[in-house]
Design brief:
Blueprint: H1 8-26, H2 34-50, H3 60-83, H4 105-123, H5 127-139, H6 143-150, H7 154-183
Helix pairs in contact: 1-2, 1-3, 2-3, 4-7, 5-7, 6-7
């Protein structure tokens, strides 16, 4: 009987397609960190095999697929933390560029009032729409990146952005018309 020799090359050849498929499914093949995630997934596979932690409850390819998925999800979470996403309950004023040059106190007060109104309008949106509006219009991500982060299609991200913007504008307009009506003197 010949003994089966398991080498790193054999493992890479057998499990590479599963690792690549898993990463492409989660982050896409054009992600700038794809190669790093691929290497990290391979390292975890080798480490687990070296420590004899693979129990064999599933196929080796399925097991490698799950490891790669976990690596990709961890990388996406780290990326989100790194960018400093804020929840809608927090103030988002600190994520905006600070004004430069001479700005008078009246203009600064107006700007803060506008930001407050915008924050209230965002807080009134459905959470799914609010996060897309926030990520796109305030933080500055493009729709492709938002769709990857939220695991939705780019079309769904576009739809949520359009609906969210429409709702924000509607809220701001209704508030403005209400304020105008309140300022008018009552007709006798």
């Amino acid at each position: 009987m010949s003994e089966c020799v398991i080498s790193r090359d054999n493992i890479v050849l057998r499990l590479a397609p599963a690792i690549a498929a898993s990463l492409r499914r989660v982050v896409g093949g054009d992600d700038p960190e794809y190669e790093d995630m691929y290497q990290t997934a391979l390292e975890r596979v080798f480490r687990t095999l070296g420590e004899s932690n693979f129990r064999g409850d599933c196929t080796a390819a399925g097991w490698a697929y799950v490891i790669a998925r976990n690596v990709a999800v961890d990388a996406l979470r780290a990326r989100m933390r790194e960018r400093g996403f804020l929840s809608l309950d927090d103030t988002f004023e600190e994520t905006l560029p600070q004004p430069t040059g001479d700005i008078g106190p009246e203009r600064l007060a107006e700007a803060r009032q506008e930001l407050s109104r915008l924050g209230e309008a965002l807080a009134g949106l459905r959470p799914a729409n609010a996060i897309v509006v926030y990520m796109h219009d305030i933080v500055g991500h493009d729709l492709a990146e938002i769709s990857k982060c939220l695991r939705i299609t780019p079309a769904a991200a576009q739809s949520r952005l359009v609906r969210g913007r429409r709702d924000v504008v509607g809220t701001l307009q209704s508030r403005e018309s209400r304020e105008i009506r309140e300022k008018r003197p009552a007709l006798e």
